[in-house]
Amino acid sequence: MSRPEDILPPDLFYNDNESRKYTTSSRIRNIQADMTHRALELLDLKSPSLILDIGCGSGLSGEMLSEVAPEDGGPHTWVGMDIAPSMLDVALQREVEGDLFLADIGQGVPFRPGTFDAAISISAIQWLCNAETSDVSPEGRLKRFFEGLYASLRRGGRAVCQFYPKNDIQRSMISGAAIKAGFGAGMLEDDPGTKNSKLYLVLTVGGGGLQGDITGVVNGMDDVNVLDARRKAAEVNGARGPARKGDKAWIMRKKEQMQKKGKVVKANSRYTGRKRRIAF
Amino acid sequence: MKVITANFVTCAVKECKTSAASFPLHFHDAELEQQELDFQPEFIRNVLPRVDWDSLRITANELGFPSLPETKPEGDALNEEQTLKDLHRLLLETQVIEGKLVCGNCGHQYVIKEGIANFLLPSHLV
User: Fold this and answer.
1) Is the peptide bond before A10 cis (omega within 30 degrees of 0)?
2) Cβ contacts (< 8 Å) between B109 and chain A: which residues?
3) Residue A188 pLDDT > 70, yes or no?
4) Coil vs helix vs strand at B18
5) Which of A48, A214, A264, B104 could serve as A186's disulfide partner, Cβ 3.0–4.6 Å?
6) Residue A256 above 90 pLDDT?
């Protein structure tokens, strides 16, 4: 599948024609609706809240935020940011309820600290991995965005960003930038390994109202497997770690290497790689 | 742009982040519109602690509304339906359709057209 990120910058790619296609295509609308439902499920909002919609486009997801039923804690009030004027124009014609901003999320999030209860972003933040001019870098844009977002959420708030990373490098670049900004972060993948796989970056500020760690977000959800990569990583680091220069393991490896090259190497004994006595 | 949003938005310019004068942004040449929205007392109660009352008074003044009480309604006042309805009318139903938002620190003007504020910055200000 071709990636719009590789074709043009977002404000030019989503011209009048693309914006109209995006908003009228029933296939895209259905996918957007599913993803917004999933994001709302992860946000787990209990009362009418103030939500930031990052890359709101024509307001497809925002519309759903306004329509959440009172028994599910809605309806929510939202503020949307997008960089494509044509998309916002479509949103105006559709008379969405949220407030719209023409803004570049890579330039930061211009709101007071602690403004929002939650933030949602559907298929937007992968655009940050592209720098359109030589005076900005993807890392810099990601940093500004996540730092701005972190500040603008209230303590105990959550953000859910669905995005399409191009590869594992982009995936770790985005999650790494979020963690650096101070978020507690986790990834949820729907239909992993298939063509329809959807990736959600779940972010919490100050614990996100959870008792334990980030895996608490999916407590009580059906069909979710928790893979904790942290424990594995810690075990690997603790048990072996990289062999340091001068270690017994390092010396043995070097001796073996030299032997393979055909050099004369002293035979190994129980004294090989052992420390000398201090008295020496 | 709703009045409640104006109470949260700050200047996007980097140098203004540390300056107190960059908030609130000041309305110039504002054209207003009333839009009927469902009354949600729950939402007002949720968001009111976060509203900066002093800057809301400044904004209301700039938009030509009668002056608000000196202090933010708290405690029992939040159970009076009339107070909440007034706040709902001001915060959510009042929208600025055309005009400008001006930063008190750097003087940068953010143009509002058809209710959409343009917060795109030239790269030297980012």
Assistant:
1) no
2) none
3) yes
4) helix
5) A214
6) yes
Domain boundaries for CATH 3.40.50.150 within chain A: 4-234
- Does residue A236 register a pLDDT over 60? no
Mean pLDDT of A248-270: 92
Residue B26 CA to residue B31 CA, distance in Å, equals 14
CA angle B82, B87, B90 (to 5 degrees): 125
First to last CA, chain B: 23
Report strand pairing: A153-163 vs A116-122.
parallel
- B43/A48 touch (CB, cutoff 8 Å), yes or no: yes
Give the range among A69-83, A106-120, A226-240, B108-122 with minimum mean pLDDT: A226-240
Return d(Cα A101, Cα A54) in angstroms, integer: 10
Q: Is A72 on the interface with B (CB under 8 A)?
A: no
* Average pLDDT taken over every residue of chain B: 88
* Residue in B closest to A151 by C-alpha: B17
Q: Sign (positive/negative) of CA torsion A125, A130, A134, A137?
A: positive
CA-to-CA dists, residue B7 to A85, A246, B27, B57, B63, angstroms: 24, 62, 11, 10, 13
pLDDT in tens, B28-78: 999 998 888 888 888 898 889 899 999 999 999 888 888 788 888 887 777
* pLDDT at residue A232 tops 70: no
Give the pLDDT confidence of A113-144 residue by residue, as tens digits.
999 999 999 999 999 998 878 888 899 999 99
Fold of A4-234: Rossmann fold (3.40.50)
Nearest C-alpha in A relative to B2? A99
Band (pLDDT 50/70/90 cuts) for residue A237 is low
Q: Nearest CA to CA, how far is A229 from chain B (Å)?
A: 36
HSE at residue B83, side-chain half, CA atoms within 13 A, is 15
Domains, chain B: 3-125 (2.20.25.10)
DSSP state at residue B2: B
Residues of chain B neighbouring A114 (CB-CB closer than 8 A): 50
pTM score of the predicted model: 0.83
CB within 8 Å: B46 and A117: yes
Chain A residues in contact with B40 by the CB 8 A cut-off are 48, 75, 77
